[in-house]
Design a protein that fits this description.
The complex is a heterodimer of chains A (80) and B (581).
Chain A: H1 3-15, H2 21-25, H3 37-51, H4 66-79
Chain B: H1 3-11, E1 18-25, H2 31-44, E2 48-54, H3 60-65, E3 75-79, H4 82-85, H5 101-122, E4 128-132, H6 151-168, E5 173-175, H7 178-184, H8 193-199, H9 205-219, E6 227-230, H10 241-244, H11 258-272, E7 276-282, H12 285-292, E8 307-310, H13 314-325, E9 332-336, H14 339-348, E10 353-356, H15 362-376, H16 383-402, H17 408-413, E11 418-422, H18 429-437, E12 441-442, H19 450-458, E13 462-471, E14 474-486, E15 490-498, H20 507-519, E16 523-526, H21 535-545, E17 553-556, H22 557-563, E18 570-574
Parallel strand pairs in B: 1-2, 1-3, 3-4, 4-5, 6-7, 6-9, 7-8, 9-10, 11-18, 15-16
Antiparallel strand pairs in B: 11-13, 12-15, 13-14, 14-15, 16-17
The chains are: A mainly alpha (80), B alpha/beta (581).
């Protein structure tokens, strides 16, 4: 597992402590009942804490799965 | 604190821990405020699991009005903001900002504040309440330019302050200090308008953290320190008294020694509210006595006891002062201008808080004064606080005479001791304070929040007796409390504490005697737990049982009567109306 994926997994573990690592890898708003708007904003802030940059609330609606968040982080990493 | 840290704190608690339920009343989406509040409260309540339940979105008043005795929380936190007082003050609202709105907003806000005050009065006894007044700036809807306060803004501010002054008189409502919050969370960084408009949380992450921290302190304040031990030279005053003489040391403005004068004033103020003040100084005692005779000293000599002045190690002085006060090192702050002396005392007394007096550093000096107030400040000052130092002095005289030749029985018989048992002290804050700070004569070490204490006292058959004491040496005030339940035959005691100032007077024996007499019980069951510090209580029961208890135990009336020594107290009983409520 690459570093970004591992760090994102850690973020998910903080916000969804009951999810298994396998569950995190496939997590999305469709599969996780507790991934509501409050959890989405909390997850965004935890990712900001972990990766040290600010995310835009406008992006939040599209970032509705682990994989999409992972792709988003990779792009941010490339830009940086 | 970051949100990640806050979440980890709340998730680290055992699922089996006893819940501490908090209702969070706010009109906005609580989001991070809820997360941070849970984390800060969790840090203060390590043996509880904090559970925050947010109130109704956009209806703070409705949340307060819905709190009833059926599901009473342990604590209530209210984060008031301007939109709670009028929806036109909400950036998310659609109301007009026209000129005609201003007067109507002021009038409407006053009506809402009256409703909130009425709702707070209706909250049943039990939960403590923490309240923050609006922390965000008003929207730019009034006619004046931003640098000028409009009449309407001033009226809104005044009405909010007037409301707060009214509700704090209720006694259980603690209001967050707006000035302190402003130091931690500057006004310009508080509002996150995008978050407000997108999510309903108007606070920046930092502001949510700082406000949550202050609300948690208001809801669960830390126990104040009981005493301060201070050095003299270049601490209580400027200068070395042994070198310059008593008249040359200074603490005034003209001598540029005002920081020492402020320190003296703070110590005097803390002494007035019951904080014990002692002196530990390496000096010539005769010279120091001369200095203490100066009429311009701002800390009055009678406010200080004991005074340890000699050339031996300060750790020894601190040990004797702690012994005279009969309190543990972790309840005390030691202040000195010498890092070496601080280190010597810290090494000898683990747990003592050592504070450096920062000579000639005024910023650090002010920070120290504020720190001492924070660590020793009290929500309210009782008549027992005013008695504390005198009773310690009297205790020293008591011990001196008790060991001074007369037989103990003769001595106890001749001191004109009177014990008063108050059966209606349920609402006395001093009783819970005593329960939560007493270590040595403490049945089990259990600490109670205000709601837990209320639950204990409202249980069927609940009994609480507060005990006060006086003898020819003077009054000790309320020095003991015993609480439990009775069914007529048996009494179960959940809590029994007695101040160490009251030891060796057989008050504990008299308490049991009165308990057996007033309840008619043939035996008393004690919910006992040994703690690291409750040896004196174990020794007392060993004298009645023949061995030290290890866990819960029973004491029969005949066991007690067979081993109870002679008692010489005059006994008074107070039975107020609430004792039977």
């Amino acid at each position: 597992m690459d570093e970004t994926r591992q760090r994102l997994t850690n973020c998910f573990q903080v916000v969804f402590p009951d999810l298994s690592p396998e569950g995190i890898a496939t997590a999305s708003t469709d599969t996780i009942a507790s991934w509501d708007s409050v959890a989405a904003i909390t997850l965004m802030n935890v990712i900001e804490d972990e990766f040290g940059f600010e995310m835009d609330l406008d992006d939040l609606a599209d970032l509705d799965s682990f994989e999409k968040l992972y792709s988003y982080l990779q792009k941010r990493h490339q830009v940086a | 604190m970051t949100i990640t840290e806050a979440l980890r704190i709340t998730q680290s608690v055992s699922r089996d821990a006893r819940p501490f339920a908090v209702t969070l009343a706010c009109g906005f989406t609580p989001l991070h405020l809820q997360t941070f509040l849970a984390a800060h409260l969790q840090q203060a309540l390590t043996d509880r699991k904090v559970i925050i339940t947010p109130g109704l979105y956009g209806n703070l008043v409705g949340t307060l009005e819905s709190i009833s005795g059926a599901a009473l929380p342990d604590g209530l936190v209210i984060a008031l903001e301007w939109p709670d007082l009028d929806p036109r003050l909400d950036y998310r609202g659609a109301g007009s900002w026209g000129a005609t709105a201003a007067n109507d907003i002021v009038a409407g806000a006053q009506t809402t504040l009256n409703r909130i005050a009425a709702a707070l009065l209706q909250v049943p006894p039990g939960p403590r309440i923490a309240l923050s007044l609006p922390t965000l700036a008003l929207p730019p809807l009034f006619h004046t330019p931003g640098w000028q306060a409009s009449q309407h803004e001033l009226a809104l501010d005044a009405n909010v302050v007037h409301f707060a002054m009214g509700v704090v008189q209720e006694g259980r409502i603690a209001v967050v200090n707006a000035q302190r919050l402003a130091e931690q969370s500057p006004a310009a960084g508080r509002l996150d308008l995008k978050s407000d408009l997108y999510t309903g949380l108007p606070y920046s992450v930092d502001h949510a953290d700082h406000l949550a921290s202050q609300l948690a302190l208001a809801l669960v304040p830390p126990s104040p320190k009981k005493g301060i031990i201070s050095d003299l030279d270049d601490t209580l005053w400027s200068g070395i008294v042994g070198e310059t003489g008593p008249d040359a040391v200074s603490w005034d403005l003209a001598s540029h020694a005002q920081l020492h004068g402020l320190y003296q004033k703070l110590l005097a103020s803390l002494a007035d509210s019951g904080t014990l003040i002692g002196i530990a100084s390496k000096n010539d005692a005769a010279v120091v006595n001369k200095a203490f005779e100066r009429k311009d000293l701002l800390l009055r000599p009678q406010q200080v006891f004991p005074v340890e002045v000699h050339w031996n190690a300060k750790s020894g002085s601190v040990a004797r002062i702690l012994e005279a006060w009969n309190i543990a090192a972790d309840s005390v702050i030691f202040v000195d201008d010498s890092p070496m002396e601080l280190a010597e005392v810290a090494a000898a007394h683990p747990g003592i808080e050592c504070v450096l007096f920062p000579k000639n550093d005024y910023r650090a000096g002010l920070a120290m004064l504020r720190h001492l107030r924070d660590r020793c400040g009290k929500e309210r000052v009782s008549k027992d606080d005013a008695l504390r130092l005198d009773s310690i002095r009297q205790g020293a005289a008591f011990r001196e005479q008790a060991s001074g030749g007369a037989a103990p029985e003769t001595f106890l018989e001749q001191i004109s001791a009177a014990v008063t048992f108050d059966f209606g002290a349920n609402a006395e804050p001093r009783v819970l304070e005593l329960v939560n700070k007493t270590n040595q004569f403490n049945l089990n070490g259990t600490r109670y929040t205000q709601p837990d204490w209320q639950k204990l006292l409202s249980a069927p058959g609940a009994v609480l007796v507060a005990v006060s004491y006086e003898d020819k040496f003077g009054p000790l005030g309320t020095i003991a409390a015993i609480a439990g339940q009775t069914d007529g035959k048996c009494v179960t005691i959940d809590t029994w504490v007695m101040s160490c100032r009251a030891f060796a007077r057989r008050i504990e024996h008299q308490t049991l005697k009165v308990l057996f007499q007033t309840t008619g019980a043939s035996e008393v069951q004690f919910r006992f737990t040994p703690t690291a510090k409750n040896g004196p209580l174990r020794d007392f029961f060993a004298s009645l049982l023949g061995e030290q208890p290890q866990s819960d135990f029973r004491l029969t009336r005949s066991q007690f009567e067979a081993r109870c020594p002679a008692l010489y107290h005059e006994v008074h009983e107070m039975r107020r109306a609430e004792a039977h409520g």
